[in-house]
Structures are given as C-alpha cells and as structure tokens.
Amino acid sequence: MPDRILGVLGGMGPLASAEFMRQLTLLTPAARDQDHVPAVLWSDPRVPDRTAARQGTGPDPLLALLRGIRGLEAAGCGAIAIPCNTAHGWIDGMRAATALPILHIVDAAAEALRAAGIPPGPIGVMGTAATLAMGLFQDGLQAGGWEVSVPTEAEMARLVTPGIALVKANRVAESHAPLAEAAQALAARGARAVVLGCTEIPLGIAAGPAQPFPVIDTIQALALASIRWAQGERG
Amino acid sequence: MPDRILGVLGGMGPLASAEFMRQLTLLTPAARDQDHVPAVLWSDPRVPDRTAARQGTGPDPLLALLRGIRGLEAAGCGAIAIPCNTAHGWIDGMRAATALPILHIVDAAAEALRAAGIPPGPIGVMGTAATLAMGLFQDGLQAGGWEVSVPTEAEMARLVTPGIALVKANRVAESHAPLAEAAQALAARGARAVVLGCTEIPLGIAAGPAQPFPVIDTIQALALASIRWAQGERG
C-alpha cells in the first residue's frame, strides 16, 4: 500500500486542480481504493493572480503560496506538486522555504515530450503572458534541445489570455475555439508539438475535437511525475 | 471574496473526490479564480474499506476518518463534506470528535430530491451493501415522505457491487452497463427517481446514455450543499 503522501498546492485555478486529482487517480494502476496515491489538495483560489503580480499590477502571491506549503507540510506530505505553471515563477522562494521536494512542472513537461518521442527542434509553448515572459519553458526545455516558440502578442491578446480567463470563469466549452486556434498557429509555423503550459489550457483544448499534431498536457505530465514519485522515485 | 474554507474528507474513492472538486468548481458562480470556494481535500484512499468493516470482515475505518478530520481542522477548515455515502455510517463517531459541522450527504440528497420536484412516494436508492444495510437513506429520507426501495440481493451481487468496484479500479466505462441496469430495475418497479447513493455510481451512470427517469447524483448534491455553506448558510 502506498505510504508517501503527495501535497498538491492548487486552486490556481480550481478546475485544473480537480482535473489534476482526476488524472492522478486514472493514471495510477489500481484495483481498489487502497492502491491509489494518498494526497492532500490545498485548493486556495484566493492566491493573488500570478500574471498580475508579474506584470506589476497586483500583489505578490508568495506569502499565499507559502501558507499552502506550510499546510501541506503539517498534513504530513512528502513532496509538492503545483498544477499551475505560472506559480513556478516563484519556485526559488518556495524552495527556500521548505525542505520538501517540489516536482517542477517544466521537468514533467520535458519528460512528457521525451515519452511522446518529440525530437530536438522547434516546438510551441502556450501559457500565460507571465509564464512566457519569465521564460519558464524557454529555460527549462533548452537542455533537451527543443527550440521554443510562443504565440505572438496579438495571438496572446486575442486568443490565449481570453481563453484562459474563460476556463477560470467555468466557460470551458467557449474556451476551445480561441485556444485551439492559437495552438494551430504554432503548428502552422513549424512547431512539431505544442506544450499546453498553463493548466487551464488542456481543459479548453479537450473540450472540442482533437488537434492533428502532438500536444503536451501539463496537468497529465505533472500527474505522471507525481505517480512516479509516489511509487518511490526520488523527488 | 469567500473566506470560509471547506474541508473535504475524501479518497473514498479518489475518483469520486476529484469529481466532487470539479462539481464544486463548476457549480460555483465565478468569473475568476478568486471567486471560487477555498477547500482542502484530504484524499486518503488508505481508509479501511467501509463495507468490509460493516460486514465484519475488515478493520474499522473510524480512526482513519478521525485522522483526516484532525488534518482538516488543522488546515483551518470551517465545515466538512464527505463524498462517500458509506462513511456516513460513522458520522456519530465523527461528530463526537469534532466541533466542525459535517454536511450530511443524505440531507443533501433530500434537498436535491426537493429541488428536482420529486413528490413523496416511491423512490429507489442505490448504494453499497453497507449503506443500504445501515439504512442511511431509509432513515434520512423518511421525514420527506419518500418510500425507499433498494436493489434486490441478486441485483446487488450481480450489478451494483461489481459496478462500484469497477469505478474504484479505474474501469469507469465498463461500470455503466451494470449500474444502469440496476437503476432501470428500480424504475421499472415504480421508483419515481433513483438516488445514486454511493459516490462511485454517478461516475458510472454518467459514462453512458442518460437515463429516462430522474437520477439524484449525491456528488453533485453534496457540492451544492457545500456551496450553500460557503456562501454563508449555517452548516
């Protein structure tokens, strides 16, 4: 029976966190309840908006993130997964404040790219404006030889940013068209795969027809990394 | 911004808990992350099997349930929702051990029956053998004038118990046929609505065509009760 408890720092957004818990369950080889991964989900949607903070128009989320980490530590968790790509912009501050390993979502995405057989070369990454401006994927995927291209500013303003906001407002079906259009634009410019590098985006992309090119779902990638950790791999 | 934190004592099973978090999110009127209900999900699939305990063939789950409640108290939660019907058989022990209100899933189901306009009279209830043997719904719905009928022992053995186990083993698609057949048998015997009184059952029922009679999803009912609590109603 598994005895490592996964801490999930979530609520950013809450629908992505719920989907993370669903994938964590469905991707675990299990024949009964007791085979599944014990986990505590700290779903705090009140964490200040990460993109607004990075753009200097809102309060810093670090204190709220650290409050969640304290809660997960107190609950006995042995590692932390954060199903919000943008929050990883504060990972240095979080790592400085806890001895628990944090399973980095960009490392999980790199592992998913490898598992999907995506060779070094051009790929696309969609994410919040803050995630892309901080270069989280550009930096994290460089070592694997992937060359990251991102949506244009016009595509961000017209498609990606509104698409993410629609998911956070429970308007998932409506988010599909703009998010799919942005992914297709990256593929048309040569991306061999598109990383859905904001955990709202896979929800929108899944709400319509499948894309005719590989997409990397960072919710699923982080769930798989979490299951590997729960099964005994070092975090 | 909401400031009441919901405690979710879950993992029984984990897929039902994830679906509870999804419904909690989708049913909340929200335009952005910060409008959603803060929640902590204690997903502990290691809690001893409730049905085996009630049947005298497995250890008692109360200690594990109380450990979860302690964790949710420590996290600052103001009420507890338990998306597992069978676990409510231990509610006296849980209520004796905490000052937090526990939002009873059978009360939530009664509210859902009222909201669906189901008049007093015959209804069906599906659940684990333990939930039905303990009379959780028979007792809890009596005051509303609903007369509860349950699957036969043969239907339990052939359809309901295996259907629940399939969901817990991540074989949700396969669970639809047996669970739907059991629901239809209750409707054929005169039930005006069928309460899906085990949180695995709505997952299986939703994995195929809709039923031609009202069904009450206890995951959704508990999510709605939780949102009412978060919005300020007394628990």
Automatic annotation (TrEMBL), chains A, B:
Gene Ontology molecular function: amino-acid racemase activity
Gene3D superfamilies tied to this protein: 3.40.50.1860
Superkingdom, natural source: Bacteria
Keyword entries, A-Z: Isomerase
Listed InterPro entries: Asp/Glu/hydantoin_racemase, Asp/Glu_race, Asp_race
Family of the protein in this entry: Belongs to the aspartate/glutamate racemases family.
Protein name as annotated: Aspartate/glutamate racemase family protein
Organism: Muricoccus nepalensis
